[in-house]
Specification:
Layout: H1 5-10, H2 14-52, H3 57-90, H4 99-115, H5 117-131, E1 140-143, E2 146-153, E3 157-162, E4 167-171, E5 179-180, E6 186-195, H6 200-215, H7 218-221, E7 224-237, E8 240-249, H8 254-271
Antiparallel strand pairs: 1-2, 1-5, 2-3, 3-4, 6-8, 7-8
Length: about 280
């Protein structure tokens, strides 16, 4: 009589039952350990992020949510792999050879690895972005020539809204360098030109007065981290001298602060009768 899974099942012994039970218990233990490892990875990454910076509550919640989503994806994929291995291991107990299924699975994985090489590269890069806390949804980043706000971040791609309002899709694996413009603080420089022959001390005092006025304005002081401070002479030529100021602001506020600073500098120069050099 030919052997079949049904006849093999009828011939089950206590050893077979114990073997199956051991496979199930071992799979459950592996699943539990995988969940613990994923949660521990999230906690360690969060701890490193808090030690390196003090983000806003909303930003911290966003980072925590994306790390947890990553842990859930890793856990879900790993759990499926564990149960597939468990089923293949249990097939001999029913008189079924796991070799054909293992060969098919191996060939499928190999074909997937060759055909989806770019996708796998993007996924690995996405894992690094999330685990290293490089940026999250809502941050403003610069990747190559693209500058904008991150609208969506997945393991495969990053969607950025640039200055024109266009939604740009960036493959995570193609971003060799990404600058986070929303982390900690932003910095900018303001150059002011004064004509040749103008007394530099008078011009520097005017810049310092405008900077002090901005620092003392409650409406703008909340946007300032440091400065504005007058650095001094940045350059000169026969037509005049360039004076430079430095300002650090809360993330992404540097442009509007610089515009306000230029406005106040122009008003202060006009009050003191100082002409600004043209073309600067």
């Amino acid at each position: 009589m030919m052997s079949s899974p049904l006849t093999h099942f009828l011939d089950f012994t206590i050893a077979n039952v114990l073997h199956l039970a051991g496979i199930v218990v071992l799979a459950l233990i592996c699943v539990r350990l995988l969940r613990g490892a994923a949660n521990k990875l999230v906690k360690e990454t969060s701890a490193r992020g808090k030690a390196a910076q003090q983000p806003s509550q909303q930003s911290a919640q966003q980072r925590e949510a994306e790390r947890q989503a990553l842990a859930d994806r890793v856990y879900g994929t790993g759990r499926q792999v564990i149960w597939i291995v468990a089923v293949l291991t249990a097939l001999p107990e029913f008189g079924i050879s796991p070799l054909p299924a293992a060969v098919i699975a191996g060939c499928s994985i190999l074909a997937l690895g060759i055909g989806a090489r770019e996708t796998l590269r993007d996924v690995f890069a996405g894992l690094q972005i999330v685990l290293e806390d490089q940026f999250v949804t809502g941050d403003t980043i610069q990747a190559g020539d693209i500058v904008g706000r991150v609208e969506e971040l997945t393991l495969r791609r990053t969607l950025v809204r640039d200055g024109r309002g266009a939604l740009v899709s960036l493959s995570n694996g193609e971003m060799r360098t990404a600058s986070n413009l929303s982390r900690d603080w932003s910095q900018a420089f303001v150059d002011i030109g004064v004509p040749a022959g103008m007394a530099l001390e008078k011009a520097l005092q005017a810049l310092e007065s405008a900077a002090a006025e901005l620092r003392g304005d409650a409406a703008w002081s909340r946007a300032l981290v440091d400065g504005p401070r007058v650095l001094g002479v940045q350059g000169y030529d026969p037509t005049g001298t360039t004076l430079r100021l430095q300002v650090r602001t809360v993330p992404t506020r540097q442009d509007e602060v610089c515009r306000e600073l230029r406005r106040r500098i122009q008003m202060e120069l006009q009050r003191q009768g100082i002409a600004a050099a043209s073309g600067r």
